[in-house]
């Protein structure tokens, strides 16, 4: 798919999330929290596709575009803006270790489109890129896992959403790793 079209589609989806949240909750902090939560879910959906199919670029190019890292950076960048706005307006207490981990994840997310372009133009070798890509994939997966684990444990009671939702999302993130490991084992058998 054309990269501009798919980016526009995901920006439209982000806009729909905002509209639905405002219709349901008015212009309120609750609406912003809802927007932030569901924007994060959209990012997880997109990351899931990239995580599970990054070893099949032709599939990702067909479904998303050849600039799927740029798409993820745009979508998760929108989520970051919403998250920062909600954190500021709600005066939420920041947890330094989570902040540091998130900062590194966002740095990787925003670096991947650039590194991908550099690999395609020869500025970075394929080996160097694949090393960073592997770290990016598993580190970002870990951040998603650590996003939902404390919610399931009840350690972040004011984040919104319900227990069943958090269990389902943690289950999905865990299943993603299981699928990835199973495909790696199958690949090594061949």
Task: Please outline the major beta sheet.
Answer: none
Estimate what percentage of residues fall within beta strands: under 5%
Please bin the fraction of helical residues.
over 70%
Task: Report the radius of gyration as a whole number of Å.
Answer: 17 Å
Number of strands: 0
Question: Which SSEs are present, and which pair or pack?
Answer:
Layout: H1 3-25, H2 29-53, H3 57-63, H4 68-90, H5 96-121, H6 126-152, H7 163-189
Please give a structural write-up.
- This protein is an all-alpha fold and 190 residues long.
- It has one domain (3-189).
- The protein has 7 helices and no strands.
- The chain has helices at 3-25, 29-53, 57-63, 68-90, 96-121, 126-152, 163-189.
- It starts with a helix and ends with a helix.
Briefly, what is this?
The protein is 83% helix and 0% strand. With 190 residues, the protein is mainly α. It has one domain (3-189).
């Amino acid at each position: 798919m054309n990269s501009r079209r798919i980016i526009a589609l995901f920006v439209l989806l982000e806009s729909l999330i905002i509209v639905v949240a405002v219709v349901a909750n008015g212009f309120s902090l609750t609406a912003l929290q809802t927007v932030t939560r569901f924007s994060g879910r959209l990012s997880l959906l997109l990351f899931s596709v990239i995580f599970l199919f990054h070893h099949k670029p032709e599939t990702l190019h067909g479904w998303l575009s050849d600039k799927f890292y740029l798409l993820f950076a745009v979508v998760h960048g929108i989520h970051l803006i919403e998250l920062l706005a909600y954190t500021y307006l709600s005066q939420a207490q920041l947890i330094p270790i989570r902040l540091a981990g998130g900062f590194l994840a966002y740095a990787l997310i925003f670096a991947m489109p650039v590194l991908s372009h550099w690999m395609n133009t020869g500025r970075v070798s394929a080996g160097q890129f694949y090393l960073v890509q592997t770290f990016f994939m598993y580190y970002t997966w870990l951040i998603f896992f650590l996003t939902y684990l404390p919610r399931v444990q009840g350690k972040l009671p004011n984040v919104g959403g319900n227990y069943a939702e958090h269990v389902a999302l943690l289950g999905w993130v865990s299943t993603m790793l299981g699928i990835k490991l199973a495909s790696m084992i199958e690949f090594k058998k061949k």
